[in-house]
Amino acid sequence: MTDMASLMEDRAAAKVISDNLHKPVDWDSPKIARNIKKRYAAERRFKMYGLSAIALALLALFVLAGSIGSKGYTAFFQTYVQLEVTFDAAEIDPDGTGDPAVIGKANFDGLIKQALRDRFPDVTSRQAKRDLYAIVSGGASYDLRERVMENPGLIGQTRKVWLISGDDFDMLNKGYISADVDEGSRRLNDEEIAWYDSLKSDGAVEKQFHTRFFTNGDSREPELAGIWGAAVGSLYTLMVTLALSFPIGVFAAVYLEEFAPKNRFTTIVEVNINNLAAVPSIVFGLLGLEVYLNVMHLPRSAPVVGGLTLALMTLPTIIIASRAAIKAVPPSIRQAALGLGASPVQTVTHHVLPLAMPGILTGTIIGMAQALGETAPLLMIGMVAFIVDIPGGALDPATVLPVQIYLWADSPERAFVEKTSAAIMVLLAFLVLMNGFAVYLRKKFERKW
Amino acid sequence: MKKTLAVAALMSVAFAGAAQARDQIRIVGSSTVFPFATAVAEEFGKTTSFKTPVIESTGSGGGLKLFCAGVGEQHPDITNASRRIKKSEVEKCAANGISEITEVKVGYDGIVLSNSNEAPELDLTKEQIFLALAKIVPSKDGKSLVDNFYTTWSEIDPSLPDVKIEVLGPPPTSGTRDAFTELVLEEACDEFPAIAALKESNSDQHKAVCAGVREDGAYVEAGENDNLIVQKLEANKDALGIFGFSFLDQNGDKLQGSMINGVSPTFEAISAGDYPVSRSLYFYVKNAHVGTIPGIEEYLAEFTADKAWGDEGYLADRGLIPMDAKERETVRNAAMNLSPLSM
Predict the structure, then answer these.
(1) Which among B61, B138, B271, B302 counts the fewest CB atoms within 10 Å?
(2) B24-109+280-336 belongs to CATH 3.50.50.60
(3) Where in chain B does DSSP place strands (E)?
(4) B14 touches chain A (CB under 8 A)
(5) Mean pLDDT by 10 residues, chain B (343 residues)
(6) A385 in contact with B at a CB cutoff of 8 Å?
(7) If you average pLDDT over residues A177-198, what whole number do you get?
(8) ipTM over cut 0.90
(9) Dist CA B208 CA B215 (whole Å)
């Protein structure tokens, strides 16, 4: 029935069209003009949708970058306090030996405390002294020791020295602690704020570029905490990941694309690879825990295990990208090579792979960037940990950049808030660099035909 | 050839500093004890010739599982816990050859219910908190049990402000949530005759009612990140948050702790034991590893020194509530003698 009806309709429509075809088109008729207007409007609307999509994406990006940047940029600067430190010979090197071993053991912390007491002589109570000492970071004594070790001539002199400040004092100087609120509900009492004002009016408080942030490992003191340990951990982890997943991924892709017979077995392999690319990363972490730690007894928290685990995760990405790149090489290139007498292996290594390389590298770097941002699988193998020492190799305990961000975000100290944002900026910078490198490689090796 | 060399070079760099016998203490466990343990570890690394211990934040239960997996350098030496070890865990340890464990009580941690200091300070009882947060509550006439129907605080008690009940807190996987459930909800629930009556008739249901937290949106699981809850409280003046005392201590200019049973969560009130929602923190040491892994005894000495866990120690600065001097002395002696735990 319906077939009949629709056939009738079609006929009627065809008749209208054929009738119209015989009539000359009146381009100025109001109907045509309306129609054209409508089509132009539709086109403008379509462009508008596209533009607003881009605008929305850009806005989101700006809000994200803005909120991270505005919170985090202060972490690249650190408050320093200038104090007059007496490098008392009786304290540092009483026998005048000049022996670095003796100087290294001296109580530099005591010198700083003495300098603070000299600056504020009317502080007497035990609690007030504790507060006073908190102006300068616990790490400052190590700086002072280094300074004296480098220049033993300082011993016996009195010098004005810039010392790294404690985290609460730093927060006050950066304006994160307001002096206006009730004394009981802020981290610093009125006396401490008075000391700050006194030092500030002497010009003895200054923000300096915070190099430690880029050279130190983790610390529980926000002013001493740095990302270098995590960055090195990430580097070792990615090196292991790359060394493993790149060759395996490329070989797998070449075999599947160029040599594998099309049968049920290869179809199953293909489907599985595509599925693996969508498996949540925590599953790879559990696999890593079981295989590498429980069966192979590799050390916990080591970048080598992290790298092996992340290699499993990035393999499907690399294989899929490489296969696409190899498939995009025109068959005429293979036919020409084979026609001139090259063996299939020569065809692949001399012609197909070099031409597919830009695509393969882009896929690999995107896989690596994914691995760089991953924390979930690392939780299982013990890389979510507090590690102070900078790892010296892939078997030393280490953590990675995103884990460092997570750990700082979870710390109660107020000063870690800005450190978290700063660490995010560093991670983003790494990602932008890696993606930029991918674009560069593509542009450099790209061949048009 | 060149490529092979490059790969070889890469690998040798990566594997430099190959594994010898472990010369570094490994610690796992509670995320609540983590900030204190890391502070001690850092100080220990700086002031002794030993390497800084590696500390993983795995949660109390996860930590004890790893700890009890066996003796040997691939297993951790110490685990932190925000609750006491369970009998079943001691038995599991023993089954894996870990017969001697030293228990070290570290101090106390208060769990606070807090809101923005621009909102009025609340004075709550445990029963009121139960009525606000439990999944199942006694009906108005108190005779039967119904799904939680309270939407504002003033419905629970007219003296409380007329604002929507909205509490941000940790998810069930968190030790803080366990402790909050145990110390507030489970204690309060038997104050209601209708629930207390269940205890005899149906103890399974009684347990479920006492520990069940409502899931209709009034209690928001805000993730394990306490800083996130702090930020959300700043933005939302009507909301309350549940987290550890150290976060309130750090953010006293933005937040205030609600009184519970008439006591404010202050350092003094928690350490005196007046504040009702506080718990003990512990760590456990595998005695078999002492002597094999260097530095464990020295780490114990660092942790139990007054400059660390004392009234004015650096752990108190980070929000740990110390035990009194006498108890510290007892625990320190037990720890230094490695007196094994018996349950």
Answers:
(1) B61
(2) no
(3) 26-29, 54-56, 78-81, 101-116, 123-124, 136-138, 145-147, 167-169, 219-221, 240-244, 255-257, 259-260, 278-286
(4) yes
(5) 53 46 87 90 88 88 90 90 88 91 92 89 90 88 84 89 90 79 87 82 83 88 79 88 86 88 88 87 93 91 90 84 89 90 78
(6) yes
(7) 81
(8) no
(9) 14
Domain boundaries, chain B: 24-109+280-336, 110-278
Residues of chain B numbered 213-242 and touching chain A (CB < 8 Å) = 224-228
Question: What's the residue count for chain B?
Answer: 343
Q: Are residues A269 and A341 located together in one domain of the fold?
A: yes
- Domain extent for A282: 228-445
Superfamily of domain B110-278: Periplasmic binding protein-like II (3.40.190.10)
Among A359, A18, A408, A5, CA closest to A220: A408
Q: Do residues A341 and A199 share a domain?
A: no
Q: Do residues A305 and A367 share a domain?
A: yes
User: How many domains, in total, are found in chain A?
Assistant: 2
Q: What is the DSSP letter of B256?
A: E
| One domain for residues A94 and A122 | yes
Indicate the pairing of strand B101-116 with strand B278-286.
antiparallel
User: CA nearest B112: which of B316, B312, B250?
Assistant: B250
Pick A243's closest partner by Cβ from B10, B55, B319.
Answer: B10
Please report whether residue A28 resides in a domain.
no
Q: Based on the domain organization, do A291 and A433 belong to the same domain? A: yes
User: Are both A179 and A267 inside the same structural domain?
Assistant: no
In a domain, A55, yes or no: no
Residues near A192 by Cβ (< 8 Å), separated by ≥ 6?
Answer: A131, A134, A135, A168, A169, A172
Of A384, A394, A410, Cβ closest to residue B227: A410
CB distance B54–A185 less than 8 Å? no
The two domains B24-109+280-336 and B110-278 share their CATH topology (first three levels equal) = yes
CB contact under 8 A, B57 and A385: yes
* Chain B from 243 to 262: CB within 8 A of any A CB: 244, 246-247, 249-253, 256
For chain B positions 267-326, those within 8 Å of chain A (CB to CB) are 312, 318-319
pLDDT at residue number B18? 41
Whole-model pTM?
0.80
Nearest-neighbour CA in chain B from A412: distance (Å) = 5
